[in-house]
Amino acid sequence: MATRAPTLPPATRPAPDDGGAVVLERRPEKTPPPQMYQVVMLNDDYTPMEFVIVVLQEFFSKDRETATRIMLKIHLDGKGICGVYSHDVAATKVDQVLDAALKAGHPLQCVSEPVA
Ligand code: TYC
Prior knowledge:
116 residues; 3 strands; CATH 3.30.1390.10; alpha+beta; binds L-tyrosinamide; elongated; 3 helices; disordered N terminus
């Protein structure tokens, strides 16, 4: 009489070429999205509005209308978001703004902070 191997349920049945390993469950690997950082510009009483508009255009790729709107928001609210970037890009933007402000003799400040 021929003996037959017992039939295993699909989850525990060895695959033909895996040396007998049994895969009980496959979870799709999920890489969490990287922490993003927003560059926040602060208002002051001395930096000319035009300088802020040019900075927003040059370093944050805003068109003139958008740059003007963001500048006015900062002027009225005390601060405003210039853009959201990876950690290194945000740090570079902050450096670029502070460097340009220092060279032009303006006290313009900006910081980067993690987006919640
Ligand atoms: N408050 C400035 C002024 O009246 C303009 C200004 C706007 C300065 C935004 C800084 O981040 C700033 N000249």
